[in-house]
Amino acid sequence: xxxxxxxxxxxxxxxxxxxxxxxxxxxxxxxxxxxxxxxxxxxxxxxxxxxxxxxxxxxxxxxxxxxxxxxxxxxxxxxxxxxxxxxxxxxxxxxxxxxxxxxxxxxxxxxxxxxxxxxxxxxxxxxxxxxxxxxxxxxxxxxxxxxxxxxxxxxxxxxxxxxxxxxxxxxxxxxxxxxxxxxxxxxxxxxxxxxxxxxxxxxxxxxxxxxxxxxxxxxxxxxxxxxxxxxxxxxxxxxxxxxxxxxxxxxxxxxxxxxxxxxxxxxxxxxxxxxxxxxxxxxxxxxxxxxxxxxxxxxxxxxxxxxxxxxxxxxxxxxxxxxxxxxxxxxxxxxxxxxxxxxxxxxxxxxxxxxxxxxxxxxxxxxxxxxxxxxxxxxxxxxxxxxxxxxxxxxxxxxxxxxxxxxxxxxxxxxxxxxxxxxxxxxxxxxxxxxxxxxxxxxxxxxxxx
Length: 450
What we know:
Layout: E1 51-56, H1 61-67, E2 76-79, H2 85-93, H3 115-120, E3 124-132, E4 134-138, E5 142-146, E6 154-163, H4 176-180, E7 188-189, H5 203-206, H6 209-227, E8 232-233, H7 244-255, E9 269-271, E10 280-282, H8 283-304, E11 309-313, H9 325-342, E12 348-353, H10 361-370, E13 377-380, H11 381-384, E14 402-406, H12 415-418, H13 424-430, H14 434-437
Parallel strand pairs: 6-14, 11-12, 11-14, 12-13
Antiparallel strand pairs: 1-6, 2-3, 3-6, 4-5, 7-8, 9-10
């Protein structure tokens, strides 16, 4: 795999602002329902009851819904305030059919999402009520436990909300590494883009290497401006990164405080995993990214699920090569605590996490929510699904809640529409209506924005 071109930055004199704590630019406050929001919520239903579909037993599910996508509700699109809406539309419409381990492809003119655009997809999330014809499960590989048919021979489905929230893409060094890493020898000075005048470059321009590198550099500076309090990053050579163990200790110890330590992660860095310390990553930028992403999701869910919701989180696996999943999960939990401390979250009834390989994560989430929302039921994924048959089993008092699932989506390809049942994304696509909900040609794909 060839090395990515570095994102070059201007040389600037050392800044005194780097050492002085400043307020964050990313707000943990959820956004209210827009006055013009007119989304039909009638298909957001409790997940505890199975319902009959029109699909005959053993018939292909995804194909049925894709052929009738106009009958299925489209998504609610939640976009961080610093992301230009033309970029959000581009990210939703321009994915290639499939992008397994593929990012921007210089040799493929159908590839029009650059690596830095793909990195910013974390701040653009589509959510939709969908029909799942089986509960997702992991039995050595991702799969689904299908529901028995009705006496009339029709397939049954469980109504859920699908969130296509995208993990920070640390699968290789081309996407999140480029966004969150320090330049080898130069300070990075953030510079915001004009949201009013922003235009997505043409695919032809993106396939001119110097044009694409220049554009990605602008996107990185835009992100640095918004995701750091000081609006800048030091060079790799000037940073003093923490070890992974020291980072985990810092994050976990702060979770034992009822309120976040102010400015805890400003000017804090960690070496990327599996790279012999070649890259140094900004903990502050990644933490602020989790706040922004969770604010997006929870803002939408509080509006979409008036009877409540149970949030099921699946930590990154494929996207955790250059940043250990244990670090990203703790950054997420810290972000969840800050958001919970800042919002009433009346709809959040339960929070479950796939804790395979990280059994302490459930306890840390319980701790994070105990200070402000002790009523929220926190479980491992295995507790949320019956030990006897593997099916969804909501905790007492949560029968009216809607289950929120994630497909661990990809920022470059529409894998939910094209991939077989070999990954979580593929399983959600094969066994449900999710592919129809986010079909790239839908006229309402970006019609309902929060």
